[in-house]
């Protein structure tokens, strides 16, 4: 394992079944993400899944939170938001699953503690949605001085134009934006 790989983690964000099922092209992203996950594991790079989740009754959700308050009001007071991951990208026992309470992977989670404990300084990001968890996590991680890579074809958004602008104009200011097959090839060369 190279020094670069020793300090790297792959973050698979908000790819839980309830979110993935909202996207018609989700089978393609799951296949590409699974390939990236397998390559990370083969290179001994930690795979960290980040899911959004709440307790029954949504006590973490303020009525002032525009994004999540509608969901909590629409659900029964005893139902919790599902954090189940699709079988195609299911975690293995050595993987870490982080539950967050807001959009950024850092917000309301213990992600930073896990990264610090494993001496991770380089985050490879993928997830749904590009304009949600990927954008919020990238911005916060950049402010925390992480080195960043975004796997462009392992990100998805409902708005294709927003997705394109983020990947081609916004993210490159703070991250390397590459295709997953190029990242996987780099791992094979660095072995």
From TrEMBL:
Domain Isochorismatase-like span(s) in chain numbering: 8-182
Stored Gene3D superfamilies: Isochorismatase-like
Superkingdom in the source lineage: Bacteria
Keyword terms of this UniProt record: Hydrolase
GO molecular function, one term: hydrolase activity
Protein name: Cysteine hydrolase
Taxonomic lineage from the root: Bacteria, Bacillati, Chloroflexota, Ktedonobacteria, Ktedonobacterales
């Amino acid at each position: 394992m190279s020094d670069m790989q020793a300090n790297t983690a792959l973050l698979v964000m908000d790819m839980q079944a309830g979110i993935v099922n909202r996207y018609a092209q989700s089978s393609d992203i799951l296949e590409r993400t699974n390939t990236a996950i397998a390559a990370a594991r083969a290179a001994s790079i930690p795979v960290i899944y980040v899911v959004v989740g709440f307790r029954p009754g949504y006590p973490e959700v303020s009525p002032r939170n525009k994004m999540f308050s509608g969901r909590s009001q629409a659900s029964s007071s005893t139902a919790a938001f599902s954090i189940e991951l699709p079988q195609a990208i299911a975690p293995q026992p050595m993987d870490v699953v982080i539950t967050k309470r807001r959009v950024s992977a850092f917000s309301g989670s213990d992600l930073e503690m896990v990264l610090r404990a494993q001496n991770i300084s380089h985050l490879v990001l993928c997830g749904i949605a590009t304009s949600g968890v990927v954008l919020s996590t990238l911005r916060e991680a950049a402010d925390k001085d992480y080195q960043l890579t975004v796997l462009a074809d392992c990100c998805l958004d409902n708005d294709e134009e927003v997705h394109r602008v983020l990947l081609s104009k916004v993210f490159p200011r703070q991250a390397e934006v590459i295709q997953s097959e190029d990242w996987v090839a780099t791992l094979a060369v660095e072995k």
